[in-house]
Design goal:
The complex is a heterodimer.
Chain A (H helix, E strand, L loop, with lengths): L4 H16 L3 H6 L1 E10 L12 E5 L1 H11 L12 E6 L3 E6 L2 E14 L2 E16 L2 E11 L14
Parallel strand pairs in A: 1-7
Antiparallel strand pairs in A: 1-2, 3-5, 4-5, 5-6, 6-7
Chain B lengths: L7 H5 L6 E3 L1 H4 L1 H14 L2 E5 L8 E7 L2 E9 L2 E6 L14 E3 L3 E3 L6 E3 L4 E3 L25 E5 L2 E5 L7 H5 L3 H9 L6 E3 L4 E5 L3 H7 L6 H4 L1 H14 L9 H6 L6 H7 L1 E4 L3 E4 L15 H9 L1 H9 L5 E3 L3 E4 L4 E9 L2 E11 L4 H15 L4 H16 L7 E3 L14 E3 L5 H14 L1 H10 L1
Antiparallel strand pairs in B: 1-20, 2-11, 3-4, 3-6, 4-5, 7-8, 8-9, 10-11, 12-19, 13-19, 14-15, 14-21, 15-16, 16-17, 17-18, 18-19
Helix pairs in contact in B: 3-15, 11-12
The chains are: A alpha+beta, B alpha+beta.
């Protein structure tokens, strides 16, 4: 089976929609088990391990994050946050057999109570075709103003 | 004019042995007074020397509400200057760090200054001839803070020209900083990357008090730490399988009350104190291969063991930083307004130690203290609910009397049950003392 550029682009759109609609079980199923979600703290940061990042989460942490959102005593989600992605058409930068790289510019809005924040960011997806399905091998999200002081970011761009 | 305007004694009266009035958290005039008296008379953290390693390197930050520049003037000489041109007030540097070369140059009218602040040159200087500029503060150059002290790489400043000495202010509390630095086989730390910067809509003191609040983790963090424990149990991994890193870092927050009671709290004079006298949530981190050997090489096995057996949890240095020795983290609670605080969380590398230690420190920082951290979300929610709740009239005091003892004497070091709120009372005792510091000094001068 081969994957077309359009299928890769559709995958990115579908993922954004899952996050906006809070379909986290489906979203977690997109990931390969050893994938990491990385959100650097520094502009053009190269090392996720030996420097502080905003996020560098394995599947255990991502599951924990998602599970927590619905916890009975998750007070910072009473009431719940909502998010909204507006994405530019993804660039498909690499197509190497069963692995692919896309880069997507987006505006991410997160809101709770009377507060709303807008983040401009670029998401890089490393995708892989495994058993006939596209999966996320790794995802890197660079926030344009990564060095600014932020309020809570509780959901996921 | 508010009821506290220009009246530090009125503000000092907001502190009682078992409670503090809400105005210490929500009143803008009390905030102005604490900037003017508490932050000016205390020794306040500025930065680490490794943030300005070379001559001409600078780092811009705040001491209280005062914009300052930490700058390396000579190889072994770091100065702290107010970030303001003495001419029209323009901030001299606006980026957070950089190198200014041999001198600072104001971007507005090109007045220039040596890196110790002395006036170097003014364009078209003849325009000032005979005007007496040299006798004005503007003619002297960039103003320096009252005093600067470099303690094992950590730069502290006292804004006031006269006042308490560095040694008297910190006393034996420096043992926590010592332990953090001693954990490097070379006795040296280096800053790693930029700090996390997290904006809170609450008073800076709520954050500082929370550092030794040992009755909140198992409650406020049930959502994060409790869920981590539950998820791990559901995985059903064998006992000897490696635990997910999150378990080592986050799960100890769910320790029972008895753990925190037994952990112990020590307080020192002038508002300093720490949790984790006997053990702490950092006690059971896995060993990193090669680290103990490197430590023993430097210190000998016995001393190396003594350094690493110390598991102090959070050490608060009054007024507004916290350090974690076992993981080389420093959090700076920078006040912006009565209801605004930026928390900057720094990490340091133990020079000469394996990289895995830095990796664990970086992991702790992002998992616990980032604006994206689930543990951070738990805490911020509590602070901001309190900041809003304190506006309720007719119930105007905040209680701080857990394990209160009669006639507590904060001028003596004490070690107590780990769930006492004595460290919070200790901070307010110091707050009151430095709020009244100028007034007391004036009275003593008059006598």
């Amino acid at each position: 089976m081969s994957v077309s550029k359009d299928q890769l682009i559709d995958f990115i759109y579908d993922e954004a929609r899952m996050l906006d609609e809070g379909r986290y079980t489906e979203w977690l199923a997109l990931w390969l088990p050893d994938g990491h979600y990385w959100m650097p703290l520094d502009y053009k940061q190269a090392d996720p391990i030996n420097e502080t990042s905003l996020l560098y989460e394995d599947m255990f942490m991502l599951k924990l994050r998602v599970e927590r959102l619905n916890g009975a005593r998750t007070f910072s989600q009473k009431p719940k946050s909502r998010c909204h992605h507006v994405i530019q058409r993804p660039f498909v930068d690499e197509m190497n057999g069963d692995t692919f790289v896309t880069n997507t510019s987006m505006h991410y809005v997160e809101t709770r109570l009377d507060e709303q924040q807008l983040l401009a960011l670029t998401a890089r997806h490393d995708l892989a075709l495994v058993d006939g399905a596209l999966r996320i091998a790794n995802k890197r999200v660079d926030i344009l103003n990564c060095d600014a002081a932020f309020r809570n970011i509780q959901l996921l761009p | 004019m508010g009821i506290y305007t220009g009246d530090p004694a009125a503000a000092a009266n907001l502190v009682q042995p078992n409670q503090v009035h809400r105005d210490v958290y929500i009143n803008p005039d009390v905030y102005k007074l604490e900037m003017k008296h508490v932050f000016a008379n205390a020794w306040v953290f500025v930065g680490h020397e490794s943030q300005t390693p070379n001559k001409g390197d600078y780092f811009a930050t705040q001491v209280g509400d005062q914009p300052v520049i930490q700058v390396r003037h000579k190889p072994d000489d770091i100065h702290v200057l107010y970030n303001r041109c003495p001419h029209k007030g323009t901030k001299i540097v606006i980026d957070r760090q950089g190198n200014t070369g041999k001198f600072f140059r104001c971007p507005y009218h090109a007045w220039s200054f040596k890196t110790d602040g002395c006036l170097l040159a003014i364009p078209l200087k003849k325009g000032y001839e005979g005007t007496g500029l040299e006798d004005t503060p503007s003619g002297k150059g960039m103003k320096a803070v009252g005093a600067v002290h470099n303690y094992r790489g950590f730069i502290f400043a006292r804004l006031a020209e006269e006042g308490i000495s560095f040694e008297e202010f910190f006393g034996d509390s420096l043992s926590s900083l010592d332990n953090m630095v001693d954990r490097s086989p070379e006795g040296r730390l280096e800053v790693v990357g930029p700090p996390l910067r997290y904006l809170h809509h609450c008073n800076w003191k709520m954050l500082v008090e929370n550092q030794t609040d040992t009755c909140h983790p198992m409650v406020a963090h049930e959502s994060s730490a409790g869920t981590a424990v539950k998820l791990y149990e559901e995985l059903g991994l064998p006992e000897d399988a490696p635990k997910p890193p999150a378990m080592e870092i986050i799960a100890p927050f769910m320790s029972p009350y008895e753990f925190f009671e037994g952990m112990g709290i020590r307080t020192w004079p002038n508002g300093h104190g720490h949790t984790g006298v006997n053990h702490s949530i950092h006690s059971n981190y896995s060993a990193i291969p090669g680290y103990f050997e490197a430590m023993a090489e430097t210190y000998g096995e016995e001393k190396a063991k003594a350094i690493l057996d110390e598991n102090r949890h959070n050490t608060v240095y009054f007024p507004n930083i916290m350090i974690k020795g076992p993981i080389q983290q420093l959090r700076n609670f920078i006040p912006l307004a009565a209801d605004r605080t930026i928390v900057e969380s720094y990490i340091y590398r133990l020079v000469g130690a394996p990289d895995e230690l830095t990796a664990r420190t970086a992991m702790y920082n992002r998992m616990i203290n980032a604006p994206t951290s689930i543990v951070g979300h738990d805490d911020l929610e509590m602070y901001e609910r309190a900041q809003e709740g304190l506006h309720v009239d007719g119930m105007e005091w905040v209680n701080i009397q857990r394990l209160l003892e009669e006639d507590e004497d904060f001028s003596e070091e004490a070690v107590l049950n780990g769930t006492t709120e004595r460290q919070m009372r200790n901070q307010f005792d110091a707050w009151r003392k430095f709020m009244l510091y100028d007034q007391t000094a004036q009275q003593e001068a008059a006598e």
